Amino acid sequence: MSALTELASSLAGGKIRVVDLTHTLSPGFPAIALPPEMGQAWPFRIEEVSRYDERGPAWYWNNFSCGEHTGTHFDAPVHWISGKDLPNNAVDSIAPERFIGPAFVIDCSKEAAQNADFLLTVDHLKAWEKKHGRISPRSWVLMRTDWYKKWRDPVAFQNYDEEGQHTPGPQVDAVKFLVEERDVLGFGTETIGTDAGQAYHLRPPYPCHYYMHGAGRYGLQCLANLDQLPPTGAVVVAAPLKIENGSGSPLRVLALVESK
Amino acid sequence: MTTPLERPRRKNPILRTRQPTAPPAVRSRVALGLTAAAARGVFELQVCRDCGATQYPPREACRACLSERLAWKPQDGLGQLVSETMLHHSYELFFRERLPWRLGMVRLDCGPVLIAHLHGDVAPAPTRVKVHACLDKAGQAALFAAPEKETPNMADDKQLREMTCDPKFRKVLVTDTKTALGQALVKSLVEAGADLVWAGHAEPWKKFAGFDELKKLPQVSLLPLDVTDSKNVRELAAEIGGRVDILINNAEHHRTYGIANRPGVETARAEMDVNYFGLLRLAQEFGPAMRSRGADGQSSAVAWVNILSIYALTNFPPHGTFSASKAAAHSLAQCLRAEMRPGGVRVLNVYPGPIDDEWNQTLLPPKLSPAALARAVTQALKQGVEDLYPGDVAQEWLARWRDNPKALEREISV
Asked: B320: which residues sit within 8 A by CB, 6+ positions away?
C-alpha cells in the first residue's frame, strides 16, 4: 500500500482523525485593534447578495469582506518589516510543502489561567522537551492556552484594560531558541496575535513577529481546539489563500491526529 | 391649564396598531417658503420690499402693491385671537381620528389674519397669542397659536404634541454611546423624561470612559451595536425595532485627512462605512417598523435624528473625506425623510460645526461642546424642527452658504 493510499484508508477508517483548529468567521468575532489614528484591518463582514428572492430567485450567496489578518489566520514573513526583503515571503510565493507540517503542542493552559500576561520562556520549552522529546526541524510549535474557549465572550477574549491587552505569548528568548536552535516552521497561538498582549513592551517589541518573520517563518493565530491535540504526533495542514503578495490570510487549519 | 401627560399604559398587544395618516400635504411652491423656515423652527412671512406690507397666505405678488419683490422675513408671531371654534367633524382622516380639534382666527400685529391650530391653554377670544410655524405630521408648515407666555405643561397639549417629537415618555435608541456626545445625548434624553434609552456601543471589548456612569441610570439599557455589521443591525432591529419611538444615529467615523495627505482609500472607506452605509443599514432595518408606528398612541414612533455635519453642505478640505461621507449621508437622509414622512416620522438632520472632541483637538475654538449639542438636539425634538444648525460656527456657515454657496467654497478652501 502506498503511503497516500494508507493515509486515505486511515482517514476513512477513523485511524486518523481530523481536528478542526479553526474559528468560524463571523462579524462578532473580535478583530485586532490598533490605536485609532493608525490604519485598521477590516473585521469580518458579510452582506447577502440574494436568498431565493427578487435579487436571485433560485440561489443564496453572500459577499464578504475582511482583512488578511482576520479570524483564524496565517502570517507570512512579509507581514513584518524584518521579513520584508526575504525571498518567497508572501502567501502566494511560499512553497506549498511548507503548508503541511508536524505540530508540537506546548501546554501552557494552567499558566495562562493563572496569569493572562504569561510569557513562555526557553526554560519552559526545555523542560517540555525533556518530557516529550526534541522539537524537530520544520515543525509548527503551537502554544496551547485554552484561550480559544473564551471566543463567545469578546470582552474576555480581548482582555483589555487601561494598559492595553493582556493575553499570553512567547518571551523573546523562547522565540530566538525556536528559530535559531530548533529551526521551526512557525509559531501558533489561540490568542489574537502570536505575540503576547503586552509584547509592545518587550525588547524588541513583538518578538515573535520580529524574529519568526525575520527568519522567514510563519505564524498562526486565533487557533481553536489545541486541547484536542497530543503534545507530539499531529500533522497540521494550514494553506492560506493565494493572495498576490499577501501578508497573510484567513484559512481553515486542520490537524491530523492518530487515534489511540 | 394643560393636564400633564401621564406615563402611558402598556400597549394592549392584541389590538391592531392604527395606521398613520397625515393632514393635507399639498402646498404651492411659494407656500413651501413657510415650510422651509418652519423646518428650522422659524416663523417667516413674505414682506414686500417695495411697500413694506407683510402678507399671508404666501403669494407670487404683493397683495397691497402687486410688486414681485417679496422677501421671507422672520416674524415674532404676536397677535390677537379674534375668534375660535372647536372642530367636531372632518373629512380629513388625520383630523377625524383626533377630534375634537381647536382652531382660532388670529390677527397678527403685523397685519395679516390667519387660521391657526389653537393650544388648549389659550384663553377664550379675544386674547393675546403667539403664533409659531410648526411642522405637522405631513411635514408641512402649520400655524399654531399658543399663549403668549409659557404655561405649566404647555408641551403636553394634545394638539401640540402632534406637531412635536417630545422625548417625554418615549423610547429612544442612541446608536453610539461610547463618545462624549452619545453620553450627553443619553443624559439629556433622560432629563427630558424619556422612558427608556437603548445605548449602543460597538466593539464591546474596548472599554470606554463613562460606561459605568451610563450603566447606573435606571432608564438606560446598554447593548452592543456596530452599524458596520449588517447582521448586528438586523438582529437588534428584530429585537427592539418595534418599540423604538426615536432613533438618534450619532455613530460617526471621523479622521482628519484630505486627499493628498493620506495614501489609499481605507480611511475614507471606513468613514463611508459608518457615516453613510451605517445610516443605510439602520434605515433599512429600523425604518419599516418605525414608519408603521407613527400613530401608535400617545408615545408613537416620532423622529429619526441624524448627526451630520456642517461640512455636509460644503467640503472642509482639511477633513475632506469626512466631509464627503457626511455629504453622502445628508443626501441619503433626504431620501429617508421622503420615505418616513408618510409614516408620520420626522427626520431631524443636525449639522453641527466642529464638536469639542478628540478628532477636532487641533482646531481652534469655537467648538461645540457635546453637552451643548445634546441639549440642542433634545430642544429641537421638543420643538419639532427637521433641520438644526447648532452653534455659532454652523450658524455662520449656514448664513454664508445660503447667501452664496460658491463664495463659501472658496472661503473655506483658502
From this structure: B257, B258, B259
CATH of the domain at B207: 3.40.50.720
Rounded to whole angstroms, how far apart are CA atoms B274 and B253? 6
Judge: B232–A161 Cβ closer than 8 Å, yes or no: no
pLDDT, averaged in runs of 10, over chain A (260 residues): 95 97 96 91 96 96 97 98 98 98 98 98 98 98 98 94 95 98 98 96 97 98 98 98 98 95
Q: Exposure of A163 by Cβ count < 10 A (0-12 exposed, 13-18 middle, 19+ buried)?
A: exposed
Summarised one tens digit per residue, pLDDT across range B86-131 is: 999 999 999 999 999 999 999 999 999 999 999 999 999 999 999 9
| Cα atoms found within 13 Å of the Cα of residue B196, Cβ hemisphere only | 14
The cell 484594560 sits on which residue?
A161
Pairing of strands B113-118, B141-147: parallel
Task: Assess whether A79 carries a catalytic annotation.
Answer: yes
Instruction: Specify the pTM.
Output: 0.95
Alpha carbons A240 and A251: distance in angstroms, whole number: 5
Q: What pLDDT score does B211 carry?
A: 85
DSSP-assigned states of every residue in B25-39: ----TTTHHHHHHHH
Q: What angle do CA A72, A127, A214 make, to 5 degrees?
A: 45
Q: What is the ipTM of this complex?
A: 0.92
Cβ neighbours of residue B217 closer than 8 Å, sequence gap 6 or more:
B186, B187, B190, B197
Contact B204 A160 (CB under 8 A): no
C-alpha cell at B143: 400655524
Angle subtended by helix axes B405-412 and B392-403, to nearest 10:
130
List A69, A79, A209, A213, catalytic entry: A79
On whether any CB of chain B is under 8 Å from the CB of A137, the answer is: no
Chain A: give the shortest CA distance to residue B309, in Å. Answer: 21
Residue B374 lies in domain: 171-412
Q: Between A33, A40, A45, which is nearest B229 by CB? A: A45
- Same domain? B187 vs B150: no
Residue B209 is predicted with a pLDDT of 87
Q: Kindly list the residues from chain B whose CB atom is less than 8 angstroms away from the CB atom of residue A28.
A: 229, 231-232
CATH superfamily, with its number, for domain A10-39+68-258: Putative cyclase (3.50.30.50)
Min distance B225 CA to chain A CA atoms (Å): 10
At how many degrees (to 10) do helices B370-383 and B180-191 cross? 40
Q: Does B373 lie in the same domain as B226?
A: yes
B205 touches chain A (CB under 8 A): yes
Answer yes or no: do B68 and B118 share one domain: yes
Which helix (H) or strand (E) segment is A48 a member of? strand A45-53
